[in-house]
Write a structure and sequence with these properties.
By secondary structure, the chain is an alpha+beta fold. It has helices at about 30-50, 60-65, 65-75, 85-105, 140-150, 160-170, 170-175, 250-265, 285-290, 295-300, and strands at about 110-115, 125-130, 155, 180-185, 190-195, 200-205, 210-215, 220-230, 235, 245, 270-275, 295, 300-305, 325-330, 330-340, 350-355. It has 2 domains: about 30-105, no CATH class; about 110-355, Endonuclease/exonuclease/phosphatase (Deoxyribonuclease I, Chain A, 4-Layer Sandwich), CATH 3.60.10.10. Helix 1 (about 30-50) crosses helix 2. The termini are far apart.
Length: about 375
């Protein structure tokens, strides 16, 4: 037999190599696309659960709090469609479209604008609420801001002893607000109530921190006024999610606040509740608190009306969430509301609102009391 010699030839470098089977190698884009799919799916699930179920805690509650901003997450995920292929692209496209649809329908990021004409027969009342971030606002800035906006009734939260003493000694504030109830504290629960009109029968409480009093208007009508500061929800990591949100302490305080105002609501007493409630209008506790009350922003507000931003963003003259509220009832109607987020040291904006108190119906009208300082 003739031996047949076999020869080995190197492959021609110009000959294209066949591509590896699909999935045989891990594309670098997969390391980005699949985590993105997982995050978007988790956000969508939390959002839907928060909408469908009355969830007060955990990721679904966080989705309620930041509802209008969730659309940004789904928009940010859209460019990943250019990196994804096949099944990945289809999954991501469905999640993005569903996420945008759900969030835009349930939490539209653009607020509303309402204009309401004043009643010439009603008594105008301008009010303000301001969380001073534990004394971070100087008394000169407090005096300047209050002088600029000239509210008739002011609710102050996180009032420290030093700032209370400075406010009490400031000639501008003393002249503008001869009636003052100051309950400072070295913790977060310091409160203050200022008024250009007599403050009658002030009562304080600690759960939640508040000052409740009757404010006597020049025409003899009275407004039940509550300056309030609800405790914040607890944030932090949990064993089941990266974000834990526990609202039980706050919600319990708001339930007690609701019980306190029930008699005035039932009696038809003009009611004014203003302060930092640490609560957005998208949460279950808001629905529990507000039946029978008028939210000034909902009635006459412009845009989203945000009143708070983290302390790291205090230099920005705008808010991130609306957690400071002006609520009214029983012939006390809002005309306008406007947060002033001028950076002066606080993470909260000064919220000023114009109200009017209509003619008394079945309400008793007391005679005007002589002016005196509380």
């Amino acid at each position: 037999m003739q031996d047949v010699a076999t020869s080995h030839r190197d492959p021609d470098p110009t000959t294209p190599r066949s591509a590896p089977p699909h999935g045989a190698s891990l594309r670098p884009a997969v390391l980005v696309v699949w985590p993105c799919i997982a995050i978007i799916a988790a956000l969508l699930l939390a959002t839907v659960v928060g909408i469908v179920l009355p969830v007060r805690d955990g990721p679904p509650a966080v989705a309620r709090v930041f509802g209008p901003y969730l659309v940004l997450a789904f928009v940010a995920a859209a460019p990943m469609l250019f990196l994804a292929r096949g099944r990945e692209r289809r999954m991501l496209a469905v999640l993005v479209v569903l996420g945008l649809g759900v969030t835009l329908l349930r939490y539209p990021p653009i607020g509303h604008t309402t204009v309401r004409a004043a009643d010439p027969t009603a008594t105008p009342v301008t009010v303000a609420t301001w969380n001073l971030e534990f004394g971070q606002v100087a008394s000169d800035d407090v005096a300047r801001m209050l002088t600029e906006h000239a509210p008739d009734i002011v609710s102050l939260q996180e009032l420290t002893p030093d700032l209370a003493a400075a406010i009490d000694a400031d000639p501008v504030i003393r002249a503008r607000y001869p009636w003052r109830v100051l309950e400072p504290s070295t913790s977060w629960d310091g409160m203050g109530l200022l008024s250009i009109w007599p403050i009658e029968d002030p009562v304080t409480d600690s759960d939640p921190p508040l000052i409740s009093a009757m404010v006597l208007l020049p025409d003899g009508q009275r407004i039940r006024t509550l300056a309030v500061h609800a405790p914040p929800p607890r944030w932090g990591p949990s064993p089941v999610s990266l974000v834990a949100y526990e609202s039980g302490r706050r919600d319990g305080a708001l339930q007690r606040l609701r019980a306190r105002i029930e008699p005035d609501l039932a009696a038809g007493t003009p009611l004014l509740l203003l302060g930092d409630l640490n609560l957005t209008d998208r949460e279950i506790a808001y629905e529990d608190l507000t039946p029978g009350l008028i939210d000034a922003h909902h009635a006459v507000g412009t845009g989203m009306g945000n009143t708070w931003r983290p302390f790291t963003m205090e230099v920005i003259p705008a808010g991130l969430l609306r957690i400071d509220h002006v609520l009214t009832a029983n012939d006390l109607e809002p005309l306008w509301i406007a947060p002033d987020c001028t950076p002066v040291g606080s993470d909260h904006c000064l919220v000023v609102a114009g109200l009017e108190l209509g003619e008394p119906r079945d309400r008793g009208v007391a005679s005007t009391a002589a002016m005196g300082s509380a």
